[in-house]
Fold this protein.
Amino acid sequence: MQISTIIQQSCNDLVVAGITDSPKLDVELLLAHAINKTRTYLFTWPEKTISSDEFKKFQILFSQRLVGKPIAYILASKEFWGLNFNVNQHTLIPRPDTEILVEETLQKAKNRQGWPPHIEILDLGTGSGAIICALKHELPQANATAVDFQAEALAIAKQNALNLQLNIQFKQSDWLSVFNTEKFHIIVSNPPYIEETDPHLQQGDV
């Protein structure tokens, strides 16, 4: 089947299902992943046909999207701050608007006078580690620490830091309970703010 035909038919299916505001983008991301190509390839060669194995792989991915599973969880990956992060059901999906928190934090760190170069930064409820990794990426001299209550989330965050070659200390903790006399120049947090029963969770990458 031709790439253009797959995209058109799949977009129609998503529109009927009513679970996304970006059906074409969703289909392109899944199809590009299934055939191990970029979206640019899809734009350039819409008349190309894909193999039956590639189409089966796409169908498996697409069937998950049809029932509302977010793209990031299907692909187990999400870009944030220009960096690629592994994600799964144990972590929230990094969202573009969370980059505002990173921007504001970097601005405050830049404007502070008298702070040592090795400032101490703590991320509470780190999840995938997106925020602390972005901050450490921009402030390589900082001492970065992140905590999360869930061991499964910490495992993902640690792997992301390793993949990005960032030296970050991770601790399992219920917020600040693991700390005694430690002090931090900056504490950031972006905890869950959407109820688990919120229907928007089934409509996209929330």
The two ends are 32 Å apart (CA to CA).
